[in-house]
Amino acid sequence: KLTSLALQPVIAPELLHGRVHLKCSYSPPFPEPPAQYRVLWSRLSSPGKREQIHHETTPQPFSYVEVDGANLCLGDTVFCTVTAFRRGTPEQQSLPEDSKGFYAGIKFLPESLEIAEDGKEHVLTVLSTVPIACPGQDDFCKITLQLSTEDLGKSSQVPGPPDIVLSACQVDLLAGPCSGSSCAAATVTVTAVTDFVRDGNRGSRVSAEPVAPRDLLWRAYTPRDVKVTVRDLPTGNCYSFTDPHIITFDGWRYDNYKIGTFLLCRSESRAFEVHVRQWDCGGHRSAAACNCGVAAQ
After folding, report:
1. Is the pLDDT confidence value at 225 over 60?
2. 212, pLDDT greater than 60
3. Element (H, E) at 60
4. Least crowded by CB within 10 Å, which of 69, 96, 223, 284?
């Protein structure tokens, strides 16, 4: 009997006649390849459950299914299951072999991010696992994605700075040949906002939405979000108060009774400095100055 033949089915995206297809390829065993293959295509309908979308019997070592927006849509995770048998003896068949699940649609890589309030930029790749098709359009072909951020757990009624910012509000996925499971890709950087607030670790998400696509396939599709966790970092503080007493970032204390405009602090790593202006407020009885103005760049 035919048992495990190591057919190793693999799904890859392909553009056929301007339409998006998935191709299931499998390796015929040697030295005696079976004459027929039974290929079952299925999609993940709910966690742990699949539903059949297409099946065929073919002598070819491959099978196609179209991402048509009806039986198979963007956002689906697809599998192909292959069984081999010899013509004339269909009851003698190999054990069915499953491909890995293929996600058809837009992916963020990495699928989640953990970043800190340190000003560093983190690269987020947006890629399409299916070809970009522009039916009836011979010139420049692309899908534009509108990117947005949302702070999870923050009330929309309470305004405040966002927890993360993006380097771009839109990215273009340009049509081109597929390489592996990537058919088009673009990058954007994500940075955590330094908000000078001790608000603990917070969650945000980045969303993408196709902008006015011509292809019907993309119109009803909303890609998965990517979750970004912002790790809170302790904030340093310095002070100048009353007549004026100074406390530095590292806790050193001194007094400055002089009148004039002074540089309170300056960053050595970025364009940031604070000036203070002090006026006489002690009169004839004591030599004292008080803060009367501040300017920050």
Report:
1. yes
2. yes
3. none
4. 284
